[in-house]
């Protein structure tokens, strides 16, 4: 075992943490995990690609960063799953390529713990390997519902390469954020619910001075470029029609972060955490896509939001519908987004009540049961 009483000397000495590069959500949600291991005096290295690696390398200046092959999925069709299935040979090739790259990384950084957020090739038999996901069940489009079981079986087969599966959600399905995505009626070996994790906390924004000069809105784009561009085009056009002070964050860490202002809208390519925390504190409402990392951030921040799920991304569509039905967050489709209606409707939605985030004890429980014996 790594640890029984969990003293710092019993933690893994070197931890490699990898994140998928589809949008920034996988990168942002491993930030508190990286911080957790740094606080235990572990030597941590990061592996990713694209904007995700750019964000992490900026955030953790001084940590070693390794470049992994990009998945580079083309989004030609409305359905995310359709895009993935049609490009399955490319995805499988990338998984094999990142697995080979891992061998080279381990020669340079001999980790004794590997943590992979949705990178299926980042595991090594003989080294403790953990996979982080909130999706045990991949949801197909409704017209392909008959493939649900086959998708689950194929997915769990990929997860079998890892020693543990960490699900950043609550174990109780009734309280869970991801619902049927993270809770399935099938046994999964070495499955641990570690609770939601976010780089933010409510105390971060409660300490900020808040202006009382009227409604302020923060819109944040994320996800693949095609979805991000469409979100920006439609949401900015709606914000232009209104006079309330608004901010737009493009989510481009590789770009300069200089602000661009119009009469009442200020746009940023990227903000560091301190700048973003101050902006969130100053705003009454957030408009964002219903990605799972964004949902965990909203839980931590206790902020109200309007969801616009990425069209064709079944996970986001399910989550937006789930929280709308629970009367927590109002949601609209991107093609029919109407800010005036959304503002009026969102008043009756509650947001999240108080729930625990970043529960260290749940991660420590998983680590206590992580065997150092070779597979």
Written description of the protein model:
The two termini are 14 Å apart. The chain is α/β, with parallel strands linked by helices. It has helices spanning 25-39, 50-59, 80-86, 88-108, 148-159, 202-206, 225-240, 273-282, 292-301, 314-325, 339-346, 360-368; strands at residues 14-19, 43-48, 64-67, 113-117, 128-132, 164-167, 191-193, 216-220, 245-249, 260-261, 265-268, 285-288, 305-307, 330-331. The longest helix is centred in the N-terminal third of the chain and has 21 residues, at 88-108. Helix 10 (314-325) links the parallel strand 13 and strand 14. The strands form 2 sheets. Strands 3-2-1-4-5-6-7 form a 7-stranded parallel sheet, covered by helices on one side. Strands 10-11-9-8-12-13-14 form a 7-stranded mixed sheet, sandwiched between helices. The chain has 2 domains: 8-197 and 358-368, Glycogen Phosphorylase B (Rossmann fold); 202-346, 3-Layer(aba) Sandwich (Rossmann fold), CATH 3.40.50.2000. Helices cover 36% and strands 15% of the residues.
List the helices and strands and how they pair.
Elements: E1 14-19, H1 25-39, E2 43-48, H2 50-59, E3 64-67, H3 80-86, H4 88-108, E4 113-117, E5 128-132, H5 148-159, E6 164-167, E7 191-193, H6 202-206, E8 216-220, H7 225-240, E9 245-249, E10 260-261, E11 265-268, H8 273-282, E12 285-288, H9 292-301, E13 305-307, H10 314-325, E14 330-331, H11 339-346, H12 360-368
Helix pairs in contact: 1-2, 1-9
């Amino acid at each position: 075992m790594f640890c029984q009483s969990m003293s710092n000397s019993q933690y893994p000495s070197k931890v490699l943490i990898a994140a998928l590069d589809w949008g920034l959500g996988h990168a942002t949600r491993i930030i508190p995990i990286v911080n957790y291991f740094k606080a235990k005096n572990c030597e941590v290295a990061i592996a990713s690609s694209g904007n995700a690696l750019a964000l992490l390398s900026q955030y953790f200046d001084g940590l070693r960063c390794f470049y992994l092959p990009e998945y580079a999925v083309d989004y030609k069709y409305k359905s995310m799953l359709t895009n993935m299935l049609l490009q399955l040979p490319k995805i499988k090739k990338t998984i094999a390529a990142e697995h080979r790259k891992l061998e080279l990384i381990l020669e340079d950084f001999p980790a004794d713990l590997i943590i992979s957020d949705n990178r299926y090739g980042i595991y090594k038999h003989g080294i403790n390997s953990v996979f982080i996901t909130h999706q045990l069940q991949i949801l197909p489009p409704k017209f392909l519902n008959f493939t649900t079981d086959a998708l689950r079986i194929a997915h769990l087969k990929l997860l079998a390469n890892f020693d543990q599966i960490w699900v950043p959600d609550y174990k109780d399905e009734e309280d869970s954020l991801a619902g049927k995505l993270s809770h399935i009626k099938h046994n999964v070996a070495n499955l641990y619910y570690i609770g939601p994790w976010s780089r933010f906390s409510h105390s971060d924004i409660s300490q900020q001075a808040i202006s009382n000069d009227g409604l302020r809105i923060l819109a944040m784009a994320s996800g693949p470029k095609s979805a991000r561009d469409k979100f920006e085009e439609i949401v900015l056009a709606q914000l232009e029609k209104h006079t309330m002070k608004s901010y737009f964050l493009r989510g481009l860490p590789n770009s300069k972060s200089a602000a661009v202002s119009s009469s009442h809208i200020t746009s940023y390519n990227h903000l560091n955490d301190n700048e973003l925390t101050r902006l969130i504190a100053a705003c009454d409402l957030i408009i964002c896509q219903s990605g799972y990392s964004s949902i965990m951030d909203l839980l931590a921040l206790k902020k109200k939001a309007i969801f616009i799920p990425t069209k064709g991304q079944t996970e986001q569509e399910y989550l937006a519908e789930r929280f709308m039905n629970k009367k927590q967050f109002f949601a609209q489709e991107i093609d029919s987004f109407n800010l005036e209606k959304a503002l009026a409707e969102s008043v009756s939605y509650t947001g999240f009540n108080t729930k625990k985030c970043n529960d260290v004890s749940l991660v420590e429980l998983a680590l206590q049961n992580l065997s150092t014996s070779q597979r």
